[in-house]
Design a protein that fits this description.
This protein is an alpha+beta fold. The chain has helices spanning 3-13, 50-54, 60-72, 105-114, 116-128, 132-139, 173-181, 186-197, and strands spanning 21-23, 30-32, 38-39, 44-45, 75-77, 84-86, 90-92, 100-104, 157-160, 167-171. It folds into three domains: 3-54, Wheat Germ Agglutinin (Isolectin 2), domain 1 (2-Layer Sandwich), CATH 3.30.60; 60-114, 2-Layer Sandwich (Wheat Germ Agglutinin (Isolectin 2), domain 1), CATH 3.30.60; 130-197, His-Me finger endonucleases (His-Me finger endonuclease fold, 3-Layer(aba) Sandwich). The longest helix is centred in the first third of the chain and has 13 residues, at 60-72.
Length: 199
């Protein structure tokens, strides 16, 4: 523990300079004070360490140190199967500190295979900013809302306004592409209708 942190603890909680450890009444192990929770009501540390009192496996700082040590050696623990694997067994993820996913590739494939519908629901809700009720309503539409052609699977497209992001309905692939090619321009669409009428 850093010296400045030790001085702060000693000064705040009146811990003698020569005593920086405490005996856990359950496991009978002598541990540093950081392994015990401090009670604001009694202004004292708990008699049992965090591991014994709440079943914690260890401090977050200790776990992070273990993660860093493994990472430097070219390994990482999978958050799903808890196996220690080489870094090439994990996919890249720019949103994490390590730049890798928390689960290994094998676990990710197994999860994706067994949870396709749940993943589809989550991704669709996030992409179009809709809730569960709206998602279920869209899922219940089985015909294109322009040409009435039956739609399912990859032929089923959620149409939305590219300006506002608002979801408009369900279209088949052809109708969805047609609106896209017309840039959602009502004037151009009306001209196209007049063009077809006069031919």
């Amino acid at each position: 523990m850093p010296k400045n942190a030790i001085r702060k603890i000693q000064g705040r909680f009146k811990i003698p300079l020569n005593i920086m450890t405490k005996l856990c009444t359950k496991c009978n192990q002598e541990k540093e004070y950081k392994y015990f929770s401090f009670r604001n009501d009694t202004k004292k540390y708990r008699s049992q360490c965090r591991q014994c009192a709440k079943g914690y496996k260890g401090l977050l700082s200790d776990r992070q140190a273990k993660i860093n040590e493994l990472f430097k050696a070219g390994y990482k623990e999978c958050g799903k199967c808890n196996s220690i694997k080489s870094l090439d067994k994990f996919s890249s993820d720019k949103s994490t500190v390590t730049g890798l996913t928390s689960t290994c590739k094998n676990c990710k494939v197994k999860y994706n295979t067994g949870n396709k519908e749940a993943i589809k629901r989550t991704v669709t809700k996030r992409r179009y900013n809709i809730n569960d009720i709206e998602y279920d309503e869209l899922s219940g539409v089985n015909n294109c809302q322009i040409c009435s052609e039956g739609v399912k699977g990859i032929t089923k497209h959620i149409d939305h306004c590219h300006m506002t992001g608002r979801v408009r309905g369900i279209l088949c692939r052809k109708c969805n592409l047609a609106l896209g090619h017309f840039n959602d321009n009502e004037t151009s669409l009306k001209r196209a209708i007049e063009y077809l009428k006069n031919r």
